[in-house]
Write a structure and sequence with these properties.
The complex is a heterodimer of chains A (390) and B (438).
Chain A: H1 4-11, H2 15-46, E1 54-59, E2 67-68, H3 71-76, E3 81-89, E4 92-93, E5 103-106, H4 121-129, E6 133-137, H5 138-144, E7 151-156, E8 167-176, E9 190-193, H6 194-200, E10 207-208, E11 210-215, H7 221-231, E12 239-243, H8 244-255, H9 258-287, H10 289-297, H11 302-338, H12 353-379, H13 383-387
Parallel strand pairs in A: 5-9, 6-8
Antiparallel strand pairs in A: 1-11, 1-12, 2-10, 3-5, 3-11, 4-7, 6-9, 7-8
Helix pairs in contact in A: 1-11, 2-8, 2-9, 2-11, 9-12, 11-12
Chain B: H1 2-25, H2 28-44, H3 46-60, H4 66-100, E1 105-110, H5 123-130, E2 145-156, E3 163-171, H6 175-178, E4 183-187, E5 196-200, H7 201-206, E6 215-218, E7 221-230, E8 238-242, H8 243-249, E9 258-262, H9 269-278, E10 284-288, H10 289-333, H11 335-343, H12 348-378, E11 382-386, E12 392-396, H13 401-428, H14 431-436
Parallel strand pairs in B: 3-8, 5-7
Antiparallel strand pairs in B: 1-9, 1-10, 2-3, 2-9, 4-7, 5-8, 6-7, 11-12
Helix pairs in contact in B: 1-13, 2-3, 3-12, 4-10, 4-12, 4-13, 10-13, 12-13
The chains are: A alpha+beta (390), B alpha+beta (438).
């Protein structure tokens, strides 16, 4: 630590060059922060802790095929099942198709299975009592400036009403909140009563889209899954049950291999970065060969010269990288407030501890790799040769 | 003098931004004109000849600065390859969907449904649509109209064995006259009335068990794959069977998802649309298939473009600083040589020009390297994503000449920015100081 001022002085010996290199490092880590925030948003959608004890039961043939509602009581009777509920995709459009948000018709007890959605007791009661009632997440309500008491018309893409109309009007009776920032994307949904939906829709009556099952003991999930799927084996509506995590992961994975794309880009970025800072460090050491020889003459050991040069390159990476991650968190914050998440998966997560840790590890590694060759060169210097300029 | 300085500092960034923008939107012939002007200047004028000789010296000494020069080349190659790869992805996805539609075929969906998956058209409505006077009749006098059914089936993917959604489309015989570009790679057409399927080329590549002769179980019934087709568009991601058989397997009754018709000519679309809109028995949306499929690609390809441009722009900033470092180092290594040139009468312009040209030459090399790499790796690279009908759409990356050109333009823009300041410094360097420096 006592050599910090020495390292610092060496680093800023050529101010312009160091500043330019710092800015390149900054750009690389800015990109790392942004892309990793996108990647972790996609993976957070699948390792959502709140749903660890929940299963999703869908039609084995296809997610889009309905299941009979009569299955509910049979699922509830399966040993190990704490509770079960159901929902149906509605796919409504508010004013314009660009305003897309998920909308679902849900059973009366659907909220019991999702304790992470917080709704006050009286709003909960109002949702239960109002036939055409609807609840929305706080982010969604904020986006369209909705408040409790508003009437919200949705255009049905799939289900017209019995009277042939495509317009369904709902009374907003509640707004739910989610505390966990990683799940905030789910504050973007619109829920209404399945019983009203089933009564008024033109076709498909008596069917539900999927079941949500809460297991009593998450360690015995496998047995419960098998028992639920056995209920409808060999029927014309065979089911496929999986944990909520597996279900979401599979759905997200169908869009694209986000990890692969991000990995490829980051590979290109860091390859360039290593080359670029490596060049800077090599130049810096080459220029200072006589100075390093003087240090050795004064009694610095080979090892401490090695440490000085390595320290310089690590410091360079840490300064630039930390600045880059700071800029990244400002940018991510701005993007998140400017565009509320549009789908079930938020495009970006805040730059949190895990991104910082990964980032710092990367800075250390790149710093050591980049400093290695020049540092070894500095260590092997022979004082006589270096001082005489050979 | 001070006011002039101020004006200069204010105008320089502005001039840089304007020239960068001009460069980024410049078509190829503008570049050719600029190139010709440069060659003309170098060949015909005194200062041009000076610039040419100084540039020659600079370029000849690149070999001595290989390490730092390669920073410019590799940095820019990285920017260009990421940019071109992501834009090629967007272009490929867009092209695959746009080619799927034509202007003289139209698709009819239930009003408000947006996608086939959400739409329901019952048998009666399908009949009314196919009887519209604007629908082309085949030589047998039958309307060229296919009532189609779309079912999402799930099959294991070849890549990871996980179940993914694939679109199973029920078609009627008229469909062969609607999709005229379909040709068979293997096997034959399915026979109407039998549980036979044909699979698109893309679907066969992405999913297991879709080879000719294999059987698969869909909704509890066994189907045989009898052919593989290549439509050259997004239908390649689908599996096709007979509408009536698919409908009975999935208990859809006689209703279908959409009706696709071939119009007598592209000009009759408006009349066709008007005649369906005024028919009180129908509540439908009508669009040309070109519109329908183009709209499906808009959102995703825009997102990929924004992503690609943002990532490349940030990388470009990094690369500009890398280039600045390299070129500053280059001119300080050549300080004595440049000062000597100035002392024997060379003016500032040739010096500026030679540094700029040297940087842009390195940049061009990097751009060409990045573009070539991307083209070699990603042209026709096949990928798939979840499309609007909730099933996989297979598409291939398209590295088009225009994308390569825009990659090169980015490279030149980075080179210009990274070379300009070192060039100005080289020209302003006091001759005496330069000569004295080691």
């Amino acid at each position: 630590m006592k050599y910090l001022h020495l390292i610092w002085g060496a680093l800023f010996r050529r101010k312009t060059r160091t500043v330019f290199t710092l800015l390149s490092v900054l750009a690389a880590f800015l990109l790392f922060g942004l892309l990793d925030s996108v990647r972790s948003a996609f993976s957070a959608a699948s390792d959502n802790v709140a749903g660890a004890d929940r299963l999703i039961t869908i039609s084995k043939i296809s997610l889009t095929l309905p299941l009979p509602k009569s299955l509910l009581e049979r699922i509830q009777a399966v040993p190990g099942v704490a509770d079960a509920s159901y929902a149906n995709w509605f796919g409504g459009i508010y004013q314009d198709a660009k305003n897309f948000f998920p909308s679902e018709a849900v059973a009366d007890n659907f909220l019991d299975l999702h304790p992470e959605w917080q709704l006050s007791a009286d709003q909960r009661k109002a949702f239960h009592d109002t036939r055409s009632g609807a609840i929305v997440g706080a982010s969604l309500a904020e986006k369209f400036h909705w408040k409790v008491g508003d009437k919200i018309p949705l255009q049905a893409m799939i289900f017209p009403q019995k009277n042939g109309s495509n317009t369904w009007t709902f009374d907003l009776v509640g707004i739910y909140h989610i505390d966990d920032p990683n799940l905030r994307a789910q504050e973007n949904s619109f829920f209404f009563n399945w019983s009203y939906f089933d009564e008024a829709r033109q076709f498909g009556n008596g069917n539900v889209g999927w079941y949500v099952v809460k297991v009593a003991d998450p360690d015995r999930t496998d047995r419960v899954v098998a028992a639920i799927d056995a209920l409808s084996a060999d029927s014309d509506h065979e089911t496929k049950t999986e944990t909520e995590q597996a279900f979401t992961a599979a759905l997200v994975g169908q869009f694209a291999d986000i990890g692969l794309i991000v990995g490829a880009i980051m590979g290109a970025v860091f390859f360039t970065l290593v080359l670029l800072t490596g060049n800077t460090m090599a130049q810096a050491v080459r220029e200072r060969i006589p100075e390093l020889a003087v240090l050795k003459t004064l009694g610095f050991t080979h090892r401490s010269v090695l440490a000085l040069v390595l320290g310089e390159s690590v410091l360079l990476l840490l300064l630039g990288g930390a600045a880059g991650l700071m800029v990244a968190s400002v940018v991510v914050g701005a993007v998140r407030t400017a565009l509320p998440p549009l789908g079930p998966t938020a495009p970006m997560l805040p730059v949190g501890a895990s991104i910082w840790i990964q980032g710092i590890v990367l800075m250390l590694i790149v710093g050591l790799v980049v400093g290695a060759l020049p540092a070894i060169r500095g260590m092997r210097l022979r004082i006589v040769d270096a001082l005489s300029g050979r | 003098m001070n006011a002039l300085r101020l004006l200069e500092t204010a105008l320089t960034p502005l001039a840089i931004i304007v020239s960068l923008l001009a460069l980024l939107i410049a078509p190829w012939w503008a570049a050719a004109v600029a190139m010709a002007a440069l060659v003309g200047w170098m060949g015909l004028t005194r200062s041009g000849r000076q610039a040419a000789s100084v540039t020659r010296v600079g370029v000849a000494t690149i070999a001595q600065r290989l390490g730092s020069s390669s920073v410019v080349v590799v940095g820019i190659a990285g920017v260009v390859s990421v940019l071109v790869a992501l834009l090629a992805m967007a272009t490929g996805f867009e092209a695959s969907l746009r080619q799927t539609g034509t202007d003289d075929t139209a698709i009819v969906l239930r009003a408000g449904s947006q996608t086939e998956n959400n739409s329901v058209v019952d048998h009666g409505a399908a009949q009314i649509v196919s009887q519209a006077p604007q629908v082309l009749k085949n030589p047998q006098g039958q309307p060229v109209a296919s009532a189609e059914l779309v079912v999402v089936a799930s099959l294991p993917k070849r890549s990871n064995g996980l179940d993914s959604n694939v679109e199973l489309r029920g078609i009627e015989p008229a469909a062969w006259d609607l999709h005229r570009n379909v040709r068979f790679v293997d096997g034959r057409k399915f026979q109407p009335g039998l549980r036979e399927l044909i699979a698109g080329k893309g679907a066969r590549e992405q999913f297991k068990g879709l080879d000719v002769g294999s059987t698969l179980k869909l909704n509890g019934q066994l189907w045989t794959v009898v052919g593989i087709f290549d439509a050259g568009d997004s239908h390649d991601s689908e599996i096709w069977g007979d509408t009536a058989v698919v409908g009975s397997t999935y208990r859809r009754g006689s209703s279908t998802n959409s009706v696709t018709v071939r119009l007598t000519d592209a000009g009759s679309f408006d009349a066709f649309k008007a005649s369906l809109a005024t028919d009180p028995r129908l509540q439908v949306d009508v669009m040309t298939t070109r519109d329908y499929y183009t709209r499906q690609s808009e959102a995703l390809s825009r997102e990929i473009r924004v992503l690609g441009t943002t990532v490349a722009a940030i990388m470009a900033i990094g690369a500009v600083f890398g280039a600045l470092n390299t070129m500053y180092a280059a001119i300080s290594a050549r300080a004595r040589e440049i000062a000597t040139l100035r002392a024997i009468g060379f003016r500032g312009a040739p010096v500026i020009c030679s540094v700029l040209l040297e940087t842009m030459l390195l940049a061009l090399l990097g751009g060409a390297l990045g573009a070539t790499l991307t083209w070699a790796i990603f042209d026709n690279y096949t990928a798939s994503t979840l499309g609007q009908n909730f099933s996989q759409v297979v598409f291939s990356f398209q590295v088009t000449p225009s994308l390569l050109w825009s990659g090169l333009k980015w490279a030149l823009a980075i080179g210009l920015t990274g070379g300009l300041f070192p060039a100005l410094r080289a020209a302003r360097m006091p001759v005496t100081a330069g000569l004295r420096d080691a």
